Amino acid sequence: GLAAHRVTPSTKARKQVLELRELDLRLSLAALGVLVLLGGLQSGLDDAWTRLTGVQFPLLLSGGVLALIFAYQSRFAAAAIGPSESALQRVTPTLDMAARTLGAGPGETAWRVHRPMVMSGSLLAALLVFVEVLKELPATMILRPFNYDTLAVIANNYASDERLGEAALPALLITLVALPPMIWIARRITRQEDAK
Length: 196
Prior knowledge:
Layout: H1 11-53, H2 65-89, H3 93-101, H4 106-135, H5 138-143, H6 151-160, H7 164-195
């Protein structure tokens, strides 16, 4: 007869699953850390403001757009730093000296020499952060303002309710919005590797 063949995941697959779980846990803990920090600041502001005016300070820090911006900034700064640093490394003092030799002042040097060299790296960093924020879920779920849902949150809510047909549209929109920037980034990286 046929012997039953037990399929077991490879060690590499197990490691990847564990790494994803660890990353998700770290992101959730980071979002909670931001929430605790901003909640403490909010509480301190509430107390001081109430003593001064007799009115409670508006909820700004612990569950709103400022909390999300702070969390996104701390989470995605690393994604933006790499391309920005790479672009800034191309701006050398010899370029400044050459521009000054040709009669350009500091403002003109910054506009006509530095800006074009830094723009592509800055645009790459902005697109990477845009795509990451578009699909970010843990921080958004915890820190979002009331009645504010992103496409990732909507897709997650439908999927967790097992309404997969309704979850498909927000998931597809995330893909369609993220695809053009990712194509541009892939082409740019390919061009840079071909130039080496």
